[in-house]
Design a protein that fits this description.
The chain contains 11 helices and no strands. By secondary structure, it is mostly helical. It starts with 20 loop residues before the first helix and ends with a helix.
């Protein structure tokens, strides 16, 4: 005769708390990506690289501040251009960290289960990377401002310079991050993604340099459009009438490309995650 069945109550209960929904999940993904870019919440080893880059840019800012204190003319807008190589190195490591790891480890199905959508994932990652790049430039810019403000200079001149520096940093952050993340999203191996990012940014630079050197007039003025490294400087020249590039009357074209390039990268990024297999 079979034994009698017994039902054991082991305490399972339905969840009755608030359901925070899609917006909360997207914000959480953005915050997680921003923290991951700086190695926060991870091991000490993961913090070494991003904070080393931040420290090196801080050293450049300190040199700027010392030069300003000695009476030399220093522009806040020059810092992003001087630190552009360090930003590229930062992107080559951090962009694959944000997206390539998920592709390789096949964790995307966990993200794309409800309530977050594929486009939420892509845009949150893009926003976190853009914000990280801007912050790594904005911090040293603020250091220069603090040194100038306490050095007895014209505070309002420094405020205007700081705000223009923030704007140029935003040009670099938006253009560099959009292109770097799109490239990283194609490769599941971080080393390949890092190499591809470096190649796309750096291979175009000498080609444009040669065109600017041998070309004259229109060729020289349009050549920087062919390099994502020089494009932000062209936009800076158009908006603030500073910098060393000669762009002639093509300023609006630089502005249009500066808007359309990140937009196209964002759209291609959305398409990439719409088609990615789970």
């Amino acid at each position: 005769m079979p034994a009698e069945s017994v039902i054991h109550d082991i305490g399972y209960q339905r969840y009755t708390g608030p359901r925070l929904g899609r917006a909360y999940a997207t914000r959480s993904l953005f915050v997680h990506g921003l923290r991951a870019a700086f190695g926060l919440g991870r091991s000490a080893k993961a913090k070494i690289f991003p904070w080393t880059v931040a420290g090196l840019i801080g050293v450049i800012a300190l040199i700027f501040a010392v030069a300003a204190a000695q009476g030399e003319e220093v522009s806040y807008q020059d810092l992003p251009q001087v630190a552009s190589v360090l930003i590229l190195v930062f992107l080559a490591v951090v962009a694959p960290e944000l997206v390539s790891r998920d592709l390789r480890n096949k964790t995307l199905p966990l993200y794309f289960s409800r309530p977050i959508h594929r486009r939420d994932y892509a845009l949150a990652k893009l926003a976190s990377l853009t914000c990280a790049v801007w912050l790594i430039l904005a911090g040293p810019l603020t250091l220069i401002f603090a040194a100038g403000a306490f050095g007895g200079g014209d505070v309002w001149t420094d405020v205007r310079g700081l705000l223009s520096g923030y704007a140029v940093a935003a040009f670099y952050a938006v253009i560099f991050s959009a292109l770097a993340l799109l490239i990283a999203s194609i490769a599941s191996r971080r080393a390949i993604a890092a190499g591809a990012i470096a190649a796309v940014f750096l291979v175009t630079l000498p080609v444009v340099g040669v065109l600017m050197e041998v070309g004259e007039g229109t060729v020289e003025q349009l050549a920087p459009l062919g390099s994502p490294v020089m494009l932000p400087e062209g936009i800076r020249t158009w908006v603030f009438h500073t910098g060393e590039l000669e762009i002639g009357g093509f300023g609006p074209l630089y502005g249009a490309v500066g808007v359309l390039l990140p937009l196209a990268c964002a759209l291609l990024l959305l398409l990439r995650y719409r088609k990615v297999s789970l």
